[in-house]
Amino acid sequence: MINKFIFSRKSIIFAGAFIGVAATILQKLGNPANMGICVACFERDIAGALGFHRAVVVQYIRPEVIGFVLGSLAAALIFKEFKPRAGSSPLIRFVLGFLAMIGSLVFLGCPWRALLRLSGGDGNALFGIAGLVTGVSIGIFFIKSGYDLGRNHKTNSLFGWIMPFIMAGIFLLLIFQTKLPTGAVFFSSEGPGSQYAPVLIAFAIATTIGFIAQRTRFCTIAASRDVILIKDTYLFTGVVSLVIAAWISNMILGQFNPGFQSQPVAHTSQIWNFGGMVLAGLAFTLAGGCPGRQLFLSGEGDADAAIFVLGMIFGAGFSHNFATASSGAGPGAWGPAAVITGLIICLIIGYSMSDLVKKN
Amino acid sequence: MNEKIDVRGLSCPLPVVKVKNKLKELQEGTLEVLVDTGTAKDNVSRMANDAGWKVEIKEQEDEYLLIITK
User: Fold this and answer.
1) Cα gap B30→B1, rounded to integer Å
2) Which of A81, A159, A197, A270 is 20 to 30 A off residue B64, Cα-Cα?
3) At residue A2, does pLDDT exceed 80?
4) What does the pLDDT look like over A239-254, one tens digit per residue?
């Protein structure tokens, strides 16, 4: 009975609506505008807090990322789905995570934030979402051509616990606000990194989302991928529900500001809003799921998803150190070059790991 | 002898894609599918049900055996 609800259409509508409303409430409670939840941005903030980049306005240990992993872990343990597994092209997944982050930070948001930006009235998000669907479509071409990163295998349970332990460790750094002579842990005193909801509330909400998402398999990439590839609208329904719920909630909370100019943490260079998300959409599709999904998978023991997450954090450090990340003023100096290079790398990966080359 | 397919260890969406292709090829009969994650079990079952097949799920240790018939 419970299982029937969990996998019914109602459950995914509920999951999407819960995430949408929760994100707008987190924004009301202090998270940056149209960024109640952004997996890429929040991993980038964590990279900054640990000193992997020194962009002083985006450094904070986001409890939302931690909650996603630990909530999923809890659900997986309770429902006997915690299955440590590893060994499906980890290095390629690391590279895909790296490139997904590069693309996301050119757009200024992951698929989750693209949806939340839209529901907050940011018209620039439309170009990002169009890019996302384009990237997903390119990924589908490779999947239809036999793209496969190989099977993972059951492994020692230690593998499954590594990411939850990393998350628990950085949660302690957040709680105790550790300060070393080097300056670490770094916390922004201005900019988006200085804007955050109360730690325990954010953690509790995110843990609940992690739990729900593990059960419903919520994924913002599979939402469009499954519609195009297998004509399945289950996850797409969840994403639509997220946008509508967040939009209504934004209206009620006075957070809906329609337009293109002067949108929070956004730029109007539409070609790179589009291009950045083509890269992100393709990289996420080649890796099998959106950044949230990768966190949920790493919570249920998937060490390859954990490697992807580490690739994203590494990519965030690179993005800010090498000026590929955008700002409100527009793309970074090396952003466009990074997107083009990233796309070429993704195409090589897609081609090389498919039957297009295997059969030759 | 029933047709069998092993989609254990594959990333999304490959379990669904491989089973879907196999079902198309079979048209009718019975296909036994071995999956190892809850996500693959759910996704494959939903796809098969939507395509008019009946799915029986057998849990065995850490894995699931889906018996899909039409």
Assistant:
1) 9
2) A159
3) no
4) 999 999 999 999 999 9
Dist CA A179 CA A195 (whole Å) = 19
Tell me what ipTM this predicted complex has. 0.95
Has residue A359 got a pLDDT over 70? no
Q: Which of residues 234-263 of A touch B (CB under 8 A)?
A: 234
Closest CA to A302 of A83, A110, A4, A95: A83
Give the mean model confidence (pLDDT) for residues A336-346: 98
- Residue B43, token pair as written in the block: 């996704």
Among A217, A225, A304, select the one facing B42 at the smallest CB separation. Answer: A217
Q: Which of B12, B23, B57 to mutate to test the interface with A (most CBs of A within 10 A)?
A: B12
The structure tokens 């297998």 sit at A230
* Upstream peptide bond of A336 is cis (omega within 30 degrees of 0): no
Instruction: Collect all residues of chain B within an 8 Å Cβ-Cβ radius of residue A230.
Output: 13, 16-17, 20, 47
DSSP-derived secondary structure for A137-156 = HHHHHHHHTT------EE--
Tell me, letter by letter, the H, E, C secondary structure of A180-239. Answer: CCCCCCCCCCCCHHHCCCCHHHHHHHHHHHHHHHHHHCCCHHHHHHHHHHHCCCHHHHHH
